[in-house]
Amino acid sequence: MTGDILTLNAGSSSLKFAVFAPKDSKQTAHITGKIAGIGRAPEFSARDANGMLLVSDQPTVFSPTSTHEDLVAFLLDWLEHQLGNRTLAIVGHRIVHGGQTFSQPVRIDDTVLSELDGLVPLAPLHQPHNLATVRAVAAWRPDLPQIACFDTGFHRTQDTLATLFALPRALSDEGIIRYGFHGLSYDYIAGVLPDHLGPKAEGRIIVAHLGNGASMCAMRNRQSVATSMGFTALDGLMMGSRCGALDPGVVLYLLQSKGMSPAEIETLLYEKSGLLGVSGISNNMQVLEDSDAPQALEAIDLFVHRAASTLAGLVAALGGLDALVFTAGIGENSARVRRSICARLEWLGIAIDHVANERNETRISMDASAIDVLVLPTNEEAVIAAGCRRFVEPSAV
Ligand code: ADP
Q1: Rounded to an integer, what distance in angstroms lies between the CA atom of residue 124 and that of residue 325?
Q2: Residue 3: is its pLDDT beyond 80?
Q3: Is 367 exposed, middle or buried (0-12, 13-18, 19+ CB in 10 A)?
Q4: Which atom of ligand 1 sits closest to the CA of residue 378?
Q5: If you measure from the C-alpha of residue 276 to the centroid of ligand 1, how many angstroms do you get, rounded to a whole number?
Q6: Among the options 151, 187, 235, 372, which is catalytic?
């Protein structure tokens, strides 16, 4: 392959992108960037491989009504100029839900696209934006092959037991099972674990992906054994604006006794709950950490309480724990959240070095800790780029 790989990660309010050289053993993007503020006031920024800002701008063609199609057109045009005599060869997308059909990266054609459309109800906040971006690239650059890389894929190694709800079997048979998400992030971390843990990487590991969306994954032999998210990306940990695990009776009560519509409940659970709902202040952990309001403190405490309880449950799924890894925005940057979660898990034998933790060092456990505790930056884009390379150069993987 001679051209570059473009990775796209489309959310409701942002479109993140990265450009990788066709062959790069270090898997470092030579351009990364995003369009943020989609639907409000879109802003464009991009950086080079050294993190130097290439551009930070509110282009005149952007408006609050700019669609994903408009923004993708802008991005492809900008990239063409920026890349000079280099060209794009392939585009890889983060697709949140692959259902039961897709576990590995797949080339997107009309049949694949319509199957992915059918999964929109399972990820209503993410999948439509992912697919709108696929369609936009197809409209502007129909010559470019497009590859779907799935957030659910990493978890397909789980035993049936870990995926079942205690529902009538007919419902499980039709696909109402626990899928799990954040698989691209877990895949990346699984890939770098041996660099940090040596042979212990094949042991019992829990990775805590704590970002705006948050989940945990229990791994053995660097494969998913259990995870906190389920049928949709609502389950499990408390998140920025999502509720996490909830007694299903609450949904029935909201429907039957409070007369809320399904659409209102969807908005409540996905967009008005979590850190935002409990604090009434923000979905952003950093803002809450900077606040003196008791509601902010309670929201952080609940986040920590739920995270520690979920983690303890996953230890049972693994039959013990050798290492704990924190990743994503909160996991990589919030010393306070890591310290508080670990403090609740001292009974497991976790002992962290508070100085290393405050400095966001890679290893934050004390030498005497029974469990290694690491802070590792995730890189979903690198996993998408690797997925694309398989299509153009099967021998490269
Ligand atoms: P997304 O799931 O949208 O990719 P990120 O992984 O970027 O989200 O994580 C965003 C979260 O990380 C926000 O809650 C943000 O406040 C939090 N975060 C980032 N930096 C810090 C920090 N220094 N201290 C505390 N929280 C942080």
Answers
A1: 29
A2: yes
A3: exposed
A4: 6
A5: 14
A6: 151
User: Beta strand pairing status for 204-210 and 323-327?
Assistant: parallel
4-150 belongs to CATH 1.10.760.10: no
Q: Is 24 a catalytic residue?
A: no
Residue 321 carries which side chain, given as an amino acid letter?
A: L
Q: Does residue 284 line the site of ligand 1, with CB under 6 A?
A: yes
Residue 178, pLDDT above cutoff 50: yes
Name the residue among 198, 164, 7 with its Cα closest to residue 88: 7
Do the annotations mark residue 196 as ligand-binding?
A: no
| Residue 176 pLDDT greater than 90, yes or no | yes
Q: Where are the domains of the chain?
A: 4-150, 198-375
286 lines ligand 1 (CB under 6 A): yes
What pLDDT, on the 0 to 100 scale, is given for residue 1? 55
Q: From atom 7 of ligand 1, which residue's Cα is the shortest distance away?
A: 329
Q: Tell which CATH classification among 2.30.30.220, 3.30.420.40, 3.30.1660.10, 3.40.30.10 matches the domain 198-375.
A: 3.30.420.40
Substitution candidate for ligand 1 out of 32, 286, 304, 338 with most atoms within 8 A of CB: 286
Determine if residue 236 is labeled as part of a ligand binding site. no
- pLDDT of 243-270, one tens digit each? 999 999 999 999 999 999 999 999 999 9
The whole-angstrom separation of Cα 92 and Cα 136 is 13
Residues across the chain: 397
**Substitution site in 13, 34, 282, 333 for ligand 1 pocket (most atoms within 8 Å of beta carbon):** 333
How far apart CA 231 and CA 225 sit, in angstroms, is 16
Per-chain mean pLDDT for the chain? 94
